[in-house]
Model the fold of this input.
Amino acid sequence: MKRWIIVIVLFYSVTNIFAQNIYNHLPSKIDTSKKYIFYLHGRIIEDQGIRPMSEKYGIYEYEKILDSLAKNDFCVLSEPRPQNTNVFEYANKIALQIDTLLKSNVPVKNITVIGASKGAGIAVAISNILKNDELKFVVMAICNDKMAKFWQKNEIKIWGRVLYIFDTKDELAGSCKNYLDIIRSAGLKEFKEIEVTLGLGHGILYLPLKEWVLPALDWAQK
Done:
């Protein structure tokens, strides 16, 4: 019996360590030595809540994704967005938080924005607002003809150091290489593309898979 109590205590201790590194807004006291990740989820969470179910892709494990990103002492900022969130309004909200970190003397190299699907669209908009050529972004599963037209219409360009990740079987989004001429700014300092071959399509965004989590954390660490 005592052994089980110890195991349970240890489990909750570990869980709380991760929970302490996850916030839905900027902490009241900003630690300038920390590395910060903003995680912007896909649209399905707006529609169904924090553990939504897709008939095609399964459960979107939002909280597990946050836990996986909070490892290595990252401070993760993320919140479930309300339904039909306006991309530009939300991008401005996060851009203000990033600006607050920068004005608090958090080095720009310690800040990374990770966006999945609609969250990736918001990440690109954040990049266009801040126009910081050293800010890091991990953008996942967003490039297609429809988005290219949206970026052109709204004169959106991408800045900073950008890692793009997509699955080869994703029917909603593919490689960004054919769209770089449209979205590239003078401040796109670095661009790298990773093609995941799991065959899960858009479903890679639903789970904390090492195929995207590890490259994303490496990008945030560099």
